[in-house]
Amino acid sequence: MKRYVVFTLCLILLALIAACAVVGLGLFNVSARQGHLPGVYWILHTTYRNSVDLRAPSVDTVPDLTDEGLVQLGAGHYDSACVMCHGVPGQASSATVQHMVPMPPPIQGAVENWNPAELFWIVKNGVKMSGMPAWPTLERSDEVWPVVAFLNRVTEMDAAAYDAMLTQDATQQPGLASLQTYRQRCQVCHGPVGLGVEASYVPRLDLLNEAYIKASLLAYRSGERHSGIMQQVASLLSDEEIDTLAEVVGKISGRTAPAVPPTEGVDRSADLIAAGAKIAAGESEHRDVPACNACHGPYPVERSELFPALAGQHEGYILRQLELFKSDSRGGSERARLMHEVVPHLDKAQMQSLAAYYASLAPALDLP
Ligand code: HEC
Ligand code: HEC
Ligand code: HEC
User: Fold this and answer.
1) What is the whole-number distance in angstroms between the Cα of residue 230 and the centre of ligand 2?
2) What CATH superfamily is the domain 174-256?
């Protein structure tokens, strides 16, 4: 019995020495030139497959992914954050990507064996030790769905269809047309005149002024405002680019554009608008809800440049932002704390009415 114990202890000691030699003396070859040993790839992939299967949400949680705007927003993010590894749909991977281990699969192959709920999990969480990154912020898994909507359609796309999706052909706003950074980095989602492509996610920029746009871009870049989509965009902007974008976008005259029609499927009845107008004017049943108009306008109320205008903003976007404030997931500039004193007292119906009210107003030219 004693001999067995000594023998086992010796074996453990030898194994430990071998492990230390591999780690300490660099015996394990980490070169990407040599793939995994036979069988290791199978073990890793089966573990990966089963791990995703176990953790992915149920397919019942998958929202409607057919909306064109949703697919386009997803394409815009893909082009900014994923294309360098997974390539343009229908095109071969770059020579460098082909030498990664594991090699990021070309996107049409990458989506083949997964359902939308599993794709959601993979894009949200990433894959350890493979290079596949997690979503930039834990607060915003809602934003992963537009990417899944794009992935859901990507097998039907060739390079030309992908390119067409990223290029907007509508007439340019004169101020924006001359700004290459806007055309190349913003237009795919915010549109040629600053009207977002997907109204519940992407805000109109043509209502906002220079100071607020700059504060927002800085808050995204530092991660204080949570959005995996805009954090990615802002992380690639220099201080000078932020200044120029804020200045040019803050000046566009699209503020005179009419109020936008209701987002499909969103109720904007006269009663709802009237209910929202009452709360916005400070006549809420709840004493602790201040007048939104006191900070947000519309004109001619005097307001700080750092309080965003809401008149004419998409109602889907306003509602989403209010819900994000309420669940403490929006983040924002330093002044966002003001909103945290407002939202706890608002319920979903009140938020809907406020969104309908502001969206029904014509954008107000209340800036110098
Ligand atoms: C730095 C490179 C890199 C970037 C950037 C990247 N991925 Fe990946 N991705 C990978 C690698 C590598 C894998 C393979 C993981 C494996 O099989 O072990 C992968 C796997 C996947 C898969 C699952 C495919 C499969 O069968 O394993 C999907 C879907 C995917 N990525 C989508 C995306 C999306 C969408 C983005 C952008 C938000 C993205 N990836 C960004 C490297 C990357
Ligand atoms: C891939 C799509 C995409 C691209 C590209 C993009 N945006 Fe955005 N933008 C969004 C989304 C989605 C939001 C809303 C994010 C949130 O919920 O906080 C947003 C929000 C914003 C906001 C905040 C507006 C508000 O009302 O608070 C500003 C400012 C902005 N974007 C400017 C830009 C600029 C400037 C560029 C180009 C450098 C750009 N965006 C590129 C999708 C995009
Ligand atoms: C004391 C001033 C103040 C009051 C009152 C106020 N807000 Fe705000 N609100 C702000 C500030 C400041 C921000 C911008 C936060 C940031 O910079 O990230 C904001 C942001 C918002 C946004 C996001 C806008 C965007 O473009 O992203 C919405 C929607 C909003 N408020 C709705 C409301 C509603 C509805 C009310 C009334 C129930 C209200 N606010 C009351 C100061 C206020």
Assistant:
1) 5
2) Cytochrome c-like domain (1.10.760.10)
